[in-house]
Amino acid sequence: MPLKTVRFETYERFLNYLTKCRDNETLNVDETPTEAADHERAHIEKAEALGYTPVYAVRIFTSDGLTPVDIFVDFPNEEPTDSHLIEICLAPENPSEGDLEIVQKLRRES
Ligand SMILES: [Zn+2]
To answer: Could you tell me which residues are beta bridge partners of residue 74?
Structure first.
């Protein structure tokens, strides 16, 4: 199935989207929409503090538009340095498995 990336510039729009997915029973995470959005917000706030302009992003199946396959923070305007990316990944209180994988990979490469 084809995938596309949708970006959200504000926390409110992002949370609103995740809530719609939850109501549609297609939010594929163990957390509530607010918990999922707050986790991403921790990444966003750290990135902003480091001087970047990140956005909330989801990869979705184009079929219904309400099936997020991947939830992440996107940097449409710049590429963070590896050390900044590590800080951004570790910003939430409970970094996800995916966050920790990125950190391990970056630390191996540096
Ligand atoms: Zn994360």
So the answer is: 55
Beta bridge partners of residue 55, listed in sequence order: 74
Q: Which residues fall inside 5 Å of ion ligand 1, going by CB?
A: 96, 99
Contact assessment for residue 61 and residue 3, using Cβ atoms and an 8 Å cutoff: yes
Residue pair 33/21 in contact (Cβ under 8 Å)? The answer is: yes
56 CA from centroid of ligand 1 (Å): 11
Bridge partners, 71 (sequence order): 58
pLDDT in tens, 53-71: 999 999 998 777 888 989 9
32: left (phi over 0), alpha (psi -120 to 50) or beta: beta
pTM here is: 0.92
